[in-house]
Fold each of these.
Amino acid sequence: MQDSRSESPEAGAGPRPHVLVLGTGGTIAGVAPVANTATGAGYTAGVLGVDRLLASAPGVEQHARLEFAQLCNIDSKDAGPGLWLELARAVRAWRERAGSAGCVITHGSDTLEESAYALDCLLEPGSPVVLTAAMLPSAALSADGPRNLFDAVRVAADPAAAGRGVLCVAHGRVHAALDVSKQHPARIDAFGSGERGPLGFIGAGGLRFTREQPRHAPCAFASSPLSAQDARWPRVELVCSHAGADGEMVRALLAASAAGTLRPRLRALVVLGTGSGTVHEQLQAALDQAAQAGVRVQVVPRTGPCEGGEFDGLNAVKVRVRLLLEALQDPRQDGQQPQQ
Ligand code: ASP
């Protein structure tokens, strides 16, 4: 928390909530070549600092007293699980600060759902934690970043958003970490919550929650210590069942893992199954071998989120997040130092 934004006069009566804004990069912090500034074509993600992003959202300080810190400035396609721990540590430390309110995280849209869900697992449902992103870089015509950041701060400053788990705010919608996913590669309204729909909306009329999030089981990780330097990430891979899926890739992983040439060793496989979670018979034979070798095999439907059971509502990448965090708690772990 090396930086802090200077205060400006309050818009309303009473003290403004104290909100932390953590910058991690993404298109919201992206910059396009001068010739393409208006269209944003050919931009580079993760360039501008979070201070510049806040400066592009005039009036935001009327809703909160802001403090900010830059954790990294990357394209979120390059994010690693070490970032989840770093963010969770920063949020936990913020929550311990006297008088602190919510926290906003600016993030790339590509892997936002993974970070949001990981944080949902790693944090108690307490003061609001709100991830936001943008689909257009900072100076493009109709750039969505300033508005999304503005809205995210308003949600993070609002006590009505507390206790609902980690949230994502984009395009005027408030999504639950459990449900949200990036559902379009380019559209401004790229984020959706599937059949459940958003939790609520943020707009000129303020913050409005339109449904409750079903309570999920208390998360075993929310109270666990987060010593990133000790974290050894296991290997959890995604494979897909498809026409002609013969399982050879799984056998190659198993062989390399057994030979010690694949480090860390394979701990679990998330399998995108056809239909409701069926698997090509040849791939299934390889998965049976994996299970016999002690690799956890979890099949999820490739058609959408899991329905019912332990992973209800989670898509494949979030199931992978869950298995990674579970394996991290396992003393038999055989992993590697986390990457940013
Ligand atoms: N590649 C970018 C990122 O995830 C995309 C974005 O932010 O919209 O960082």
Amino acid sequence: MEEEFVMLSRTFAVVLIPFLLGHAVASTAVERPNLIVILTDDQGYHDVGFNGCEDIPTPHIDRLADEGVLFTNGYVTESVCGPSRAGLLTGRYQGRFGFNDNPSVDPSNPDIGIPLEEKTIAEHLKTVGYRSKIVGKWHMGSHPQHHPMRRGFDEFFGFLAGGRHYLPEEIYLDDFSDVTRNWDWYNMKLIDGYDRVGIDEYLTDAFSNEAVRFVEESAKHREPFFLYLAYNAPHGPLEATEKYLSRFSNIEDLERRTYAAMVSAVDDGVGRVLQALEKQGLSDDTLVVFLSDNGGSLKNASSNEPLRGHKGRLWEGGVRVPFAMRWPGTIPQGVVREDPVISLDILATIAEHSGVLISPERPLDGIDLLPYLRGEVEALPNRQLTWRSGSDAKRFAIRQGDWKLVRTVDHERGPSLHNLANDLSEQRDLGTREFETAAALSEDWEEWASELEPTAFPTLGKDKWWLRSE
Ligand code: CA
């Protein structure tokens, strides 16, 4: 009886909401699935079981690929945290609004964040009745106007800045006003809603607990939900508890052992979230996406093999990430897809299937992946994926088909051209031999980049806001 009522009320909302908002009713069938995006931080391409990792078992993360789709060519929009998240959260290339670098965490600067005229995924989903929660790292501005609960989320448990210590005894500063040195904010307490709170457990476990609680509570609500579970693990500092470290006594290198423990804690959390979905009978109603925000870092003992490069570079190792998606009964199980997909596609997909109407003034840059995953179309469109680091053309990349033109700080002269089909590790520059391909890609990139804005805020480490004059 209760179930029938819930189903009826959802149908009712689907038909009425666009009408009430003054838009035409969406013509395609609207399913309004719940959405869970599990985003890890600086996890290497190779550091999940489904991409061949052997020293760190990730059985629960692997379940998402086993019971859904594994994307071997899954990308993010930048090789560092902030811009990558801004792209994922808005479904638009973040350079369109000048989010070109990691932002300063200065809480007094309202310009640091996703501009208010851009919409976050939570703001979009709110228009069609979703309840949303973010658990974990925000990094999209610390000024009150950019607080997640002012950017579409109904609930928030986590932190505003780009990183945090993991052990409860390291989390003690009450607020930004206690920050007197660079990086002190890694010691700040967490935020529950708008309140500062300490924790008495390992940070990753605290996030997993909050996520499970939200899934359990959501089962009592009629509305669909969106959970953005943005673990900061396995981003530095490398810190883990004995519970997880003891699983990896076989790894001699202490840094790799600690990193493995951190990934293993995330994997436990993913398992608990999937279990909660199952227990509440929500698995078939929930699209779960797993990915990392950028490639593994040189600082966290990660592995991006066999890819070249790492966090901070537009080589494949910086922007190609572990990426899997599950929606039982709707998308196939155990399928491997090699067409390039990108984090931008997450919002484009959920928008299409939840009835979100997108303003033509700010079109999404991703595409709905479901027709492809359901086999209704044979391949994804032969689109170009594009990247720009910073505000100029010194660091950029563009991929179309198997071709990739890339320029990083490692390049002494111009960009290099690679065919990823037979040069996955980007070792052989074919730019001279395939001059026309390189020139065409370069031209296309210039055209795309002409639509982007210069960086709109002070970047991390480039200001000293904590040196207050009183
Ligand atoms: Ca990151």
Amino acid sequence: MEHILVTGGTGFIGSHTVVELLRSGYDVTILDNLSNSEASVVDAIEQIAGRRPALIVADLLDAAAVNAAFDGAHFDGVIHFAGLKAVGESVQKPWWYYHNNLTGSLNLFDAMAKHGCKTIVFSSSATVYGPDNPSPYVETMSTSATNPYGWTKVMIERILTDYTAAHPDFCAVLLRYFNPIGAHPSGLLGDDPNGIPNNLMPYVARVAAGQLPKLTVFGDDYDTPDGTCLRDYLHVVDLAKGHLSALEYAKDHTGAEAFNLGTGNGISVLELINAFMKENHIDVPYVIGPRRDGDLPGFWANADKAKEVLGWTAKLDVNDMCRDAWTFIQTPKD
Ligand code: NAD
Ligand code: UDP
């Protein structure tokens, strides 16, 4: 039995990952400051997995609290989800993003080093490929960013790469997520952002549920087959399982290694809306609006490395993603 510390484990991707960890026999402790999630997520996790993770409500910016978590238990590894993730907000509040994401991560890495914990799986992002690389993105491409959020991902990857170079017994698996959507099929866990969603799928689901009047499609004049942007959407349950593959990999590897977690397919905004309407037999009213600042026309993964090295591939399709997102929004929340 291994014990994994999951920072940000009550969040969207973290909660789905905790379910998969518990189901696979890991013990789990979540550390989260609940700035973008609810403690009640732990009840939903227990309901699905049949086992309850421990929850430490603490902020990664509180170095003493992070060390206390390590003093209280032996962790065989850490999966590090905790961070702020809204691109637009990061442009408005860069210091806050750098402080939360970088200082928080450094406090975590410091506590790991002090307590002899030598395995980390880090939530990176396809955003690290920057604006200039052609798709499909391959792990060997250069990294850069166009906003403070993206730079925090580039910088944390760099910090972990430098740390593993200096400490050759340390393993850092850098998982570059593409666009995770969908929800747990039980309807108990999903993406439930506070306020008006920034991301496409939660927006579509709220329009379908009548909670928002209509969706605005941000631009239909891109150089893509139907003029709307292409993204590599993957089901959050598939993504969660990728973290278990990463932990397995870390058992007999050291060093820092990056992996794309995506399907390898680009889907347009209009294709996603149409799939949602068809799968769920529900209308999603939309209008075409102007482009959103900073949006790239299209990017998707080359997912070969994750398949060959981690033995991971995405199994669920866009219809599964649409069905489960719809089930989630229709499930009453306490
Ligand atoms: P989320 O906001 O649902 O989860 C993040 C969790 O971290 C939240 O529960 C929040 O309360 C917690 N947190 C934030 N700052 C903290 C701090 N200082 N101390 C303790 N807890 C803190 O986000 P998510 O969608 O589950 O994303 C998880 C990770 O994956 C993030 O690092 C994000 O940048 C990365 N990522 C997400 C996406 C995506 O589309 N959702 C894509 C690529 C990468
Ligand atoms: N999008 C849209 N309307 C919305 C939200 C998003 O048309 O209300 C588009 C957006 O322009 C992008 C795609 O949907 O082309 C995915 O956006 P999201 O914010 O979910 O992911 P990201 O842009 O971060 O990849």
